[in-house]
Amino acid sequence: MKPTIIILILSVNFSVLGQSKEELDLLKVKLETIFMKDQTFRRIYSEAENKLGKDSDAYEYFWEVVENQDSILEKEVTTILDKYGWLGISQVGRLANTTLWSVLQHGSVSFKEKYAPLLKASVLKGESQPSHYARLIDRMLINSNKSQLYGTQIDYDSSEIPTFFSIEKPEYINQRRKEIGLGGIEGYAEEKKIEWNIPQKRK
């Protein structure tokens, strides 16, 4: 195949996606920068708690700064998602793709509810990580005092040993996990040192 034909095919592929390679490269850099901003304060929160005191005004202000940053990043990612959709790993790489999920995790309830279906569609295409979608949905459910679906949320506080937060119909959890590309709950439970002995069923 002649080089000119190869270039033409590549151009068609990128035009189908709606973005040129140069545009995707710029988005990759932008998202990776957003990820750094999203994670910087969270990487030092334990140190801040120890130095400032969990109940201090200074520590409360620390989290006000984090929440303000979250709001700014949510707006930036919203602009990207509304224009380009959920950018997959093959388009912008794993880290930039992870940025979308990370900012979504830390965003408002309405932000999560609006864009969670885009993340799921990307997961089903093999363009995003199944664990990201599972963690997002489970956290949303637990925060709403509902039972989780995929068993990603663990309670370390209610007893001396870790336990899963309530799981919806736990006998079907492996079926749900498989549907989005996750392995069985047994291996995850063993990794987290949680006893699991619920036989699994399929509908």
How would you describe this structure to a colleague?
Strands 1-2 form a two-stranded antiparallel sheet. The longest helix has 28 residues. 65% of the residues lie in helices and 2% in strands. Helix 2 runs antiparallel to helix 4, helix 6 runs parallel beside helix 8 and helix 7 runs antiparallel to helix 8. It contains ten helices and two strands. The chain has 203 residues and is mostly helical.
In short:
This protein has 203 residues and is mostly helical.
Spell out the blueprint of helices and strands.
Blueprint: H1 3-17, H2 21-40, H3 45-52, H4 57-84, H5 89-92, H6 94-105, H7 109-124, H8 130-143, E1 154-155, E2 163-164, H9 173-179, H10 185-191
Antiparallel strand pairs: 1-2
